[in-house]
Amino acid sequence: MSHAHGTRVQEFIGDPVSDAPPVGREKLEEIFQDIQADLRFDHELNGCLNCGICTATCPSAHYYDYSPREIVQLLWTENLEGIYDAMQEKIWACAQCYTCAARCPFGNSPGGLVMLMREVAIKHGMESARNVLRPFSRVMLKLISTGNQLSPDMISKDGFPDWGPNISKVDAPLATLRKAIPVPTLHTTKTAWEVNLKTSVELYTIWEETGVLESLKTIDQNLFDVITDIMDEKRDEWDEFLEDQEDEDED
Fold it and tell me: What is the DSSP letter of 62?
């Protein structure tokens, strides 16, 4: 007597009412393999009871069409079409608070899995990644070129109108307050963005060697070109500084 052998892998799950153009099976498998190949994948996904604790405690699930449980189930069953669909919008709703990881009885980390999916979306130059990251081009420029992104001086109701009425609470005389109550770190725009030349070059090398810049190139070619030009100039300055130091030592 033969017994049927079940499998958790869903060979094909399509959307018969969707007008979205079909994505080739080979491309879907490539995307999933990139997610699965990450060293963090096996640490973040251990199994799923489909209990829903992660979704019940997820802040984003209360406000968006997003469910951590769905993300885990899609990856656990290797639902390639569903994974690709989730990468078009749903994964960008996660706030990365990792409440899901703290509550999961199986030790899964849906937030960590979302992070992997986001990185793969960037790697493949998905339009969803372009749309999400495009407004942050200025922040990314500062982060990559100086290692810093925002400082309190930049936070104002004019600069962040999407924060709602509470943004008015930070519209205070910060400069005056800092003089009255000086803080050790001096988080001002000027000091936050003053970075040693050597540090700046080292940061750029890290972004380059770890593949961050190559990923950025697939998303925003213009920003990539700007950062490359800036860092080429800084590298030239650093080389000139080293040459001057050698000349002084010889003298």
Answer: G
- Answer for the pair 222, 228: CB distance below 8 angstroms, yes or no: no
CA 145 distance to own-chain centroid: 17
d(CA 111, CA 99): 8
Torsion sign, CA atoms 177, 178, 184, 186: positive
Residues of the chain with CATH 1.10.1060.10: 25-124
Q: What is the token pair recorded at 219?
A: 């998303």
**CATH number 1.10.1060.10 given to 25-124:** yes
Q: CA triplet 62, 63, 67: central angle to 5 degrees?
A: 60
pLDDT of residue 1: 47
Question: What does residue 49 show for φ and ψ, rounded to 5 degrees?
Answer: -90, -5
Two structure tokens written together for 201? 């070059």
Mean pLDDT taken over the chain:
83
pLDDT at 166: 65
- Residue 104, classified by CB atoms within 10 Å of its CB into exposed (0-12), middle (13-18) or buried (19+), is buried
Q: Alpha-carbon distance 94 to 66, whole Å? A: 8
CA-to-CA distance for 237 and 246, rounded, in angstroms?
A: 14
């030009």: which residue's tokens?
Answer: 229
Region of 195 please: left (phi>0), alpha (psi -120 to 50) or beta. beta
Q: Which tokens in the block code for residue 96?
A: 């990365």
**What DSSP state is assigned to residue 39?**
T
